[in-house]
Amino acid sequence: MSKQPVASLSLDLDNQWSYMKTHGDEGWESYPTYLPLLVPRVIEALRDANLRITFFIVGQDAALEKNHAALRMITDAGHEVGNHSFRHEPWLHLYSEAELDREIEDAEVAIETATGKRPNCFRGPGFSLSRTVLKVLTKRGYVCDASTFPTFLGPLARMYYFMTSKLDKAELEQRDQLFGKMQDGLRPLKPYRIQTEVGSLIEIPVTTMPVLKIPIHVSYLLYLSVFAPWLAKLYFRFALAMCKLTGVQLSLLLHPLDFMGCDDNIPEMAFFPAMNLTVSRKLKFLRYVFRTLNQQFTIVPMQEHAKAIAEQAKAVPMKHPKAIALP
Predict the structure, then answer these.
(1) Tell me: the pLDDT tens digits for 222-231?
(2) Residues paired with 10 in a beta bridge
(3) Could you give the maximum distance between any two Cα atoms of the chain, in Å?
(4) pLDDT value, residue 1
(5) What are phi and psi of 56, to 5 degrees?
(6) What would you give as a GO molecular function for this chain, any one (predicted)?
(7) Is residue 170 one of the residues assigned to a domain?
(8) Which domain holds residue 87?
(9) CATH of residue 166
(10) Does any domain span residue 292?
(11) For the whole model, what pTM was predicted?
(12) Cα 163 to the chain's mean position, in Å?
């Protein structure tokens, strides 16, 4: 393997309906999908950059025949699949153990049926996580979880989301931990092994800026590029330099709307930051991001990243869920 530091790149494959559901928009129950448009575009961009990544797939999408051809393209192109829950409800901390076991199993079955591969990594929708989630994942033999988002800005992101939504009081209370809490900024940035009562698994946090704990994933970079593309690039390069300086193993996050723009004519997604940019402008910026990553890191899917971390067993700290303030 290259002497460059190992890093992972993943995409949360949230679909049109899942954004609408979380946002409180009408019409999500018909499961509108942009996956047949989106997935080939993402696969082409990754192929051009010679990158293999992890796609965290929602089980409900994998259960629908209309999405099967697009989802099969992911594994046919050599990419990895992860579990992003079945119903994409960012309040998994309210589920019982039995409900979580069914939720994760249903997603596993649907994803394997659609893609031919069983997921072994998990990311909770809206970074939803609990001790019970980790226990269920460990019992089911998962290699890693990637649901922690160490930033102090989660409540601000939630406030923006709520301000643009049509959610009623009960729905707002249900989503009161969407994008995390202020104290999540105290969580570790470096990967670690997390101990549950039935075993352990590797936790790979979504990387934020070392020390400052402000987001660096591509949606934030694109939003910054709306105002000053040069500043977004400088911010990204500084973040990568800080990761290397502090020894943080980078795990960078992508979203579907990083690859979609105003010319795709999906008005339901207009609330999302940077959706006033065209597809060509976003893809140009993504090419810059991918080129920069390839110059400085060896990019691998999440399971390979977790394996590389596990091989450094003595250097990987063991933590209990209480230590990272999980409900």
Answers:
(1) 999 999 999 9
(2) 54, 253
(3) 52
(4) 44
(5) -85, 110
(6) hydrolase activity, acting on carbon-nitrogen (but not peptide) bonds
(7) yes
(8) 6-206+298-324
(9) 3.20.20.370
(10) no
(11) 0.92
(12) 23
